Structure formats: C-alpha cells, structure tokens
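Q: I have two molecules that I believe assemble together. Could you output structure tokens for the complex as a whole instead of separate predictions?
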Amino acid sequence: MTTTETPATTATAPTTSARRLTTAKAMVEGIAQEMERDPSVFYLGEDVGAYGGIFSSTTGLLERFGPERVMDTPISESAFLGLAIGAAVEGMRPIAELMFVDFFGVCMDQLYNHMAKIHYESGGNVRVPMVVTTAVGGGYSDGAQHSQCLWGTFAHLPGMKIVVPSTPYDAKGLMTAAIRDDNPVVYMFHKGVMGLPWMAKNPRATGPVPEEPYEVPIGRAAVVREGGDATVVTVSLSVHHALDVAEELAADGIDLEVVDLRSLKPLDRETVLASVAKTGRLLVVDEDYLSYGLSGEIAATVAETDPGLLRSPMRRVAVPDVPIPYAHPLEYAVLPTRDRIREAVHHLVRA
Amino acid sequence: MTEVLFPQLSDQDPDGEGVLATWFVDDGATVAGGELIAEVMVGKVTSEVIAPVPGAIHLKVKEDDVVRQGSVIATIS
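A: Yes, here they are, computed for all two components at once.
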C-alpha cells in the first residue's frame, strides 16, 4: 500500500479553539469541505440524503450538494459498494456508507476481494481512492446484529486502511485525510462518540474543531493523557471511558497514560512501544471481540519487540467471545465499561 | 438585548417540551452572528440554534434541562 505523504498541520487537537462541535458535525464538515474543494468527491448509501444519515453522518449534505452528489441507495450494499469501487477506479472519490458495520456480511466480497485488492493486483497501476464510512459499537440495546465493532475483522485483511476517530477534532481531520488518500480507507465511527442528542450523554463527544480544512495523519496514534504507572492502549468510545477512569484514579495516586490508536491500519506500534517502555505496564481496552483481534495484536507487538518491557503481565478488557446481548444489564456485562477498566487497572498496578 | 428562543419543532404540540441537548458556547462567551450555539431536541427531532446577533451570550438554561418550545434559552447583549 502506498502512503500519501501530506504534511499535517497538527497531529492532536489544539487546547484552545473558540469553536466547539459534536463529532457528527465535525465529520460532516470534513466531508463538505472536501466536496467543496474536489468535484470528484460524492457520497452514497442508505438514508444518507433526506434523512441525513441515521447517526447524523451526512446531515445537510443533500441540501448543499444536491442528489447527484449525495445519493440515497436501495438496500443493496453489494451493488452500491461495487458502484463506488467502479467509480473510484475511474477517477472519482466516492464515500460509501455501510449503515452498520454488522451488515458487512452481505457485501464483503466487494470490500475485501475487490476494493482492497485491485491496487495490488494491478501492480499499483489502478488506484481505488474511496472511503467506506460505517457505524460501529453498542451500548444502547440494539442487539447482536447492530452493536458490533468488527474493526479487528477488517484490519486483519490486507489492502485497506482503517481509521477510528474518538474526538470531534480527529473525526474531521481523519475524514479529510481519508478522502484525500489514494487508497481505500474504512472510516469507522462509534455511535457513542457522535454527540447525538438522543443517545447517552457524552461530554467528550463535543470539542474544539478548527474551521479550516486540516488532516490528521492516518497511521499515527495520540497519547491523549500522559502518566507513569500504566499504559492503556485503546480506541474509539473506549478512549473516553479510559480517560474517565484515569481522572478518577488520579485521585488515588494511580497515574495512567492513555494511548488513542486513532488508526488501526497502519498501526502506530512505535507510540505503543514507547509508552509501554516508559510505564512497564499494559492494559488494552477494546470494544471488539477478545480473541484473534486488536488486543492480541498489541500484545504481540510488545512480545515480539521486547517482552522485558513489561514489569507485570499485560491485561485485556474486551468483549468476551459472545454476541452482544440486547438486555441492558447483560450488554453492559460484556462491554468494556469503566468498572471493568478500573478493576483491570487495579490488578495491573498491584501485580 | 436579544432573546434566543427554543425553536418551535412540533406543529402538533406547539406547547410541548424539548431538551437543551448541547451548548456549544460557554456562559459569557462572545458569539458571532450566525454562529452555532446549541442543539435542541423535541422527541427525536433535533435542531441547531444559531446566534441571531453578535454579542455576549448569557445562558438561561443548562444542558439536559427540559424546556418548553418558544421559551427563552439565552440572551445576547
């Protein structure tokens, strides 16, 4: 995969910026500014037009850019993702929305055998500059087929970049970078970080966002909280939970460092290793399934580099290998909640 | 002084209540005319609230407060 070397204006959010947005509005602003700049960018998917995206990923775009550039599709994921791939191969820059990542089963051939392989199979002669946006995550009783994260499944397969923003700033910057990238990029937004008024209140889903276009570089993690006692490596909504726990535990004298991976492919292993080298303790928090996934990949990264970095065995908080339950108490028993993170940190620092 | 009202989102229930979901500005901040200041919700219908005039904003309700449509949520002076 080739890497687009575009200098980033800033890698992490500025501490002072007058204007605040929700993650959803920041994402839409990133899309709109690129559509304004580049006529080859267009958006298609289910309910992305008049409805504005069921998780507000496209609010206002139809009114602004019209139905030729913001297209509602039938419920036909394989067809419209194939359409997007064809358009990308012919030089357009489509953004195709898979309403829930859980639906990948009906269109995966288009994604992993075509979108993700054409640039390899053509020896780099054919580029596929497209973005697949998709909603991930649970926590609101939407059941086993509407609550998964599945980024480990996508990141396992070669040929596509994977970005997973947790903040409004990163949502806009990663969207801009994804659209400008000449490779297929899967942009996974957690419903719980979007700042939607009808979802559970999340103060971390509103934050400073510069008005001008900017990129957050794909493949670079951010240390979102510095600390010396243990490293928490995580992504997406779990970053918010990890920061909440870190602020709580600081009162008990436990000083956590929190690494927001932001991109899963390419994975910023250097930032993870540097943090673990500093703290000597590692907890991975992942809302995806436990086995064969992100948490194991992070563990392998440390083990392959220098297992001696760890002063105590690393720990993982992830979804045990079961479908996400609908019932609220059962769902929260499997999700990586603040309680589970706090408990794991206590075990980690006492070990 | 200009009053900022909770927008009328429900025609069927004009006296119905909504929720001030998000303030994007702090109390006492200086806002520009046309700036996004809040998001409100009635049922599952959401709407943005834009500053009608520039000036210093004073917030009259808190996030998550239940507010009757058409009532004052802020003043700008």
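A: One point stands out. The longest strand of chain B covers residues 17-23.
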